[in-house]
């Protein structure tokens, strides 16, 4: 389950503080704002269409451009984050005032862990950007089998179904000029839309993964590029009828392999009263990450995922970008804010391999430990490094699934003060095509709100609810999508 908006990957959205944000100048015309486009309520109205991907992306882009420099709210543009260790204990003012971060030292560095009595685990650093570790034999073979068994008992559901219409009407009510949209998409500001500039906005595909060939087919179907040079000029873009575009998309036969994600999954409750193996895994995760148990206990349940032969998950971020207007799915219910933009805030991902895969199914980190990150070199016109069906072998790091191994990484950088800072763009990852056999994995996400106050409030409320209820198994009421996660075992 990915919250809408997750695929809005960083790059142009998060310009460093000391450089002029790219694109503010080119948007100066819009920034002067005539009419409704600039008002705050405009953003709220547009952003509530969280499933309306294209609007979401555009609205977010607008929001970022407007807010840059004007609102130094926490989250947006925090000071240069680093991977440094946590403050010393004497700097702590109370519980949860800092989040421990395991040090990676260097790639290949090994640390010994004692996660369960009478057993020693070795943890190896796989990359520093993102901070990524591997722990073989984290789960026993029996535990892996049990998780698969429980997931099957519970029943798995298709991870992604094609988003239904809905956005057509919304699109028609949207009052942004074609020129403005064009300028937002035209990353290098050369007055033309290259195919890779269109591909960057993966949400434009409305759930379908877009390849350069798809775009070319679409152009020719809706006659978007009459001169056939493969790029759209502003003039061509203005003439493009968005309704034709939507009609074309609606008529396309889309199979599972065309989607961003092709898998089935289910959720297993891990709170008090859960199966002892699920409890034990949670305890091990607490020991592994050194994070406060209250934070881990109030995180998402365990997600078990099955990829059949032909399954994949194109490269994505597990968390959305951090802006002042972003609300975390998990803390939203305990705050009164009406959030204009909601995302899952997953500080840490712990991924468990539950079987040995016969062929393929590696976890790819296409930009791990790359010297720089530049979204536009990730996506070339004919080579998209995010495409895990085609280009897994061209990325920087690939992890072969091995039964019982856990890998874990940080999706956020530190804010330099021991809390969560900006999203770590290097954490981009995906599941490579399973070429033979079935792949089973499980995910533990540890949810932390980059807004410390909101996280603390959430912890307090959850503790209060647990007490009031008098019932041990408190509902993880945080996201409607998890409401079916309780298991009767
Ligand atoms: C939310 O609203 C309720 C009632 O209006 C109030 O009692 C509570 O303190 C508010 N919570 C926050 C976090 O503002
Ligand atoms: C999985 O693969 C590892 C390493 O290749 C091997 O040691 C282990 O026995 C395999 N486990 C099973 C259940 O096939
Ligand atoms: C990886 O780093 C190299 C060297 O800095 C750079 O040229 C390339 O664009 C980077 N790749 C991505 C996807 O950012």
From TrEMBL:
Alphabetical list of Pfam families matching this protein: 2OG-FeII_Oxy_3 (PF13640), EF-hand_7 (PF13499)
InterPro entries in the cross-refs: EF-hand-dom_pair, EF_Hand_1_Ca_BS, EF_hand_dom, Oxoglu/Fe-dep_dioxygenase_dom, P4HA-like, Pro_4_hyd_alph, Pro_4_hyd_alph_FE2OG_OXY
EC code(s) of this entry: 1.14.11.29
Catalytic function, reaction form: L-prolyl-[hypoxia-inducible factor alpha subunit] + 2-oxoglutarate + O2 = trans-4-hydroxy-L-prolyl-[hypoxia-inducible factor alpha subunit] + succinate + CO2
SUPFAM superfamilies referenced in this protein's UniProt entry, alphabetically: EF-hand
Fe2OG dioxygenase domain: residues covered: 298-448
Domain of life: Eukaryota
Main location: endoplasmic reticulum
Keyword GTP-binding: no
Cofactor: L-ascorbate
Role played: Catalyzes the post-translational formation of 4-hydroxyproline in hypoxia-inducible factor (HIF) alpha proteins. Hydroxylates HIF1A at 'Pro-402' and 'Pro-564'. May function as a cellular oxygen sensor and, under normoxic conditions, may target HIF through the hydroxylation for proteasomal degradation via the von Hippel-Lindau ubiquitination complex.
Name the record gives this protein: Transmembrane prolyl 4-hydroxylase
Organism: Hymenochirus boettgeri
Biological classification of the source: Eukaryota, Metazoa, Chordata, Craniata, Vertebrata
């Amino acid at each position: 389950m990915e919250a809408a908006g997750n695929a809005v990957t960083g790059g142009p959205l998060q310009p460093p503080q000391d450089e002029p944000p790219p694109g503010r100048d080119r948007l100066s015309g819009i920034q002067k704002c005539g009419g409704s486009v600039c008002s705050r309520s405009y953003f709220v109205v547009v952003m509530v269409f969280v499933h309306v991907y294209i609007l979401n992306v555009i609205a977010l882009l607008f929001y970022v451009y407007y807010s840059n420099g004007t609102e130094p709210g926490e989250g947006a543009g925090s000071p240069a984050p680093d991977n440094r260790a946590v403050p010393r204990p004497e700097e702590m003012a109370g519980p949860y005032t800092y989040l421990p971060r395991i040090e990676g030292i260097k790639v290949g560095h090994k640390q010994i862990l004692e996660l369960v009595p009478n057993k020693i685990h070795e943890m190896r650093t796989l990359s520093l950007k993102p901070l990524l570790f591997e722990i073989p034999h984290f789960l026993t073979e029996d535990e892996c089998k049990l998780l698969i068994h429980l997931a099957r008992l519970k029943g798995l559901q298709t991870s992604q179904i094609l988003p239904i219409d809905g956005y057509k009407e919304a699109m028609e009510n949207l009052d942004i000029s074609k020129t403005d949209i064009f300028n937002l998409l035209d990353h290098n500001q050369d007055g033309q839309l290259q195919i890779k500039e269109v591909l960057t906005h993966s949400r434009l595909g409305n759930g379908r993964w877009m390849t350069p060939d798809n775009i070319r087919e679409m152009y020719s179907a809706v006659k978007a590029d009459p001169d056939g040079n493969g790029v759209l000029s502003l003039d061509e873009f203005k003439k493009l009828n968005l309704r034709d575009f939507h009609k074309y998309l609606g008529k396309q036969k889309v199979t599972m392999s065309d989607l961003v994600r092709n898998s089935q999954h289910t959720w297993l409750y891990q709170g008090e009263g859960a199966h002892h193996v699920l409890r034990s895994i949670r305890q091990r995760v607490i020991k592994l990450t050194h994070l406060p148990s209250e934070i881990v206990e109030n995180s998402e349940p365990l997600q078990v995922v099955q990829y059949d032969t032909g399954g994949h998950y194109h490269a994505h971020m597990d968390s959305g970008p951090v802006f002042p207007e972003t609300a975390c799915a998990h803390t939203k219910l305990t705050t009164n804010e009406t959030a204009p933009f909601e995302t899952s805030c997953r500080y840490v991902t712990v991924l468990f391999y539950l079987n040995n895969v016969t062929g393929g199914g590696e976890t790819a980190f296409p930009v791990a430990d790359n010297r720089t990150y530049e979204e536009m070199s990730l996506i070339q016109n004919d080579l998209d490094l995010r495409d895990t069906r085609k280009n897994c072998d061209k990325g920087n790091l690939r992890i072969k699934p091995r039964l019982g191994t856990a890998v874990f990484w940080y999706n956020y950088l530190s804010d330099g003060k021991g809390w969560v800072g900006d999203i770590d763009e290097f954490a981009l990852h995906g599941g490579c095509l399973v070429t033979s056999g079935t792949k089973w994995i499980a995910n533990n996400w540890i949810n932390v709100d980059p807004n410390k106050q909101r996280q603390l409030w959430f912890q307090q409320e959850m503790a209060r609810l647990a007490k009031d209820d008098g019932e041990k198994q408190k509902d993880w009421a945080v996201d409607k999508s998890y409401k079916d996660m309780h298991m009767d075992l």
